[in-house]
Amino acid sequence: MANFEDTLTQMTKPEVPELKHKNILANAIIRTKSKSAVSWWWISVPLYVICAFVMKSLYMPHATLASNLKALASKDKYAAFLFFLTVPLVLIVVNVFSIKEIYFLSGSPRTIRFFKTISGNVSLIVLSVIIIIIFLFT
Amino acid sequence: MKLNWFKREGIFFIPTSVAGWMIFACAMVYAIYVFMDIDSRSHSVSDTLMNFVFSLLIIGAVYSFVAYLTSTQVKSANNEKSK
User: Fold this and answer.
1) Using alpha carbons only, how large is chain B's radius of gyration in Å?
2) Residue A52: its chain B contacts at CB < 8 A?
3) pLDDT at residue A127 above 70?
4) Which residue among A48, A111, A130, B66 is least packed, with the fewest CB closer than 10 Å?
């Protein structure tokens, strides 16, 4: 107890050894990393199909990315809508909310460290948007 | 319900319990079965690999989603604030 009183008398300003807010932010970042790990797996499926179609259009004379995607959409309508529209849309929503949570918890920062933390999520959002654009406008 | 069947290492979920290892084993067995099935119908090595990678990515996506739901989840910010 004496030790505690000594500490108090030596203290010149209020000291908080560990802020709870710090833990909340750390947990939010861990959750975001886990979500982005799952997101990478789900986005790899349409990306792989697009890469395969691009390679096919390069090596086969009359095949184009658009024609291949149209053929896929007409052959397997539900799978095409699931992987090229639903999954990217869900990933955009999930990652936007994750970024928003970290942004507000870390006090609306504009630092390189913050952008480095959310770079994976931003990449996922960009790739999802590209997949949707390719699917809808080709 | 708090489950602790997997832990995340990068983009991979490593099993940490018997249930987790069973899910992992099921995914592996199914991936081998899919490979053998595709290989029996394909005409070349590249044909096998192209079709198998697509199936493997779907298996990986489903596995990672299951692992995400059953891995240790830190409490949400709202729950922390309410304490």
Assistant:
1) 17
2) 50, 54
3) yes
4) A111
For A74, A76, A93, A94, the CA distances from A11, given in Å and listed in that order, are 73, 70, 47, 45
Q: Which residues of A touch B13 (CB under 8 A)?
A: 37
Q: What is the DSSP string of chain A?
A: -HHHHHHHHH-SS---SS-HHHHHHHHHHHHHHHHHHHHHHHHHHHHHHHHHHHHHHHHSTT--HHHHHHHHHHHSHHHHHIIIIIHHHHHHHHHHHHHHHHHHHTTS---HHHHHHTHHHHHHHHHHHHHHHHHHH-
Q: Quote the pTM value.
A: 0.81
Listed by start position, the domains of chain A span: 20-137
Mean of pLDDT over chain B: 87
Q: Does A133 contact chain B (CB < 8 Å)? A: no
Q: How many residues does chain A have?
A: 138
Q: pLDDT tens digit string along B39-61?
A: 999 999 988 999 999 999 999 99
Q: Is B12 on the interface with A (CB under 8 A)?
A: yes
Residue B6 backbone dihedrals phi, psi, to 5 degrees: -140, 160
Beta carbons within 8 Å of A42's beta carbon, 6+ residues apart: A87, A91, B61, B65
Domain ranges of chain B: 6-72
